[in-house]
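Consider the following input, taken from an annotated entry for DUF423 domain-containing protein (Urechidicola vernalis).
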Amino acid sequence: MTPQIVIFTGALFAMFSVIFGAFGAHALKKILSTDQLNSFEVGVKYQMYHAIVLFVVGFNFSSIPSTIYWCFTLGIILFSFSIYGLVLSDSKGKKLRFLGPITPLGGLLLVAGWFFLLLSVF
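Applying the prediction step yields:
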């Protein structure tokens, strides 16, 4: 995996994290309950945290194991985006329950990304 792809992906996720965070803070504040808004913010935070990690990894490694890239990338998509979908669908009274089991799978991929990052250092 090239550093440029990793940096691009991290920057893309970071940009959307800012957009989703602003959307949540302004547009959704009147629509969502406090619990729903908190859940939405968890998705935004984890997306940003891992976007920053991709960014840092891209700048600090000449060659990034693709396992790390894909664990973080898919982890962000499955974890954060399933939370967004769950919260938004719940706010409309039609909760997409099939997304519920996807969130922990995304979390496992994020943990795996950290594990493989640890292995790559040693």
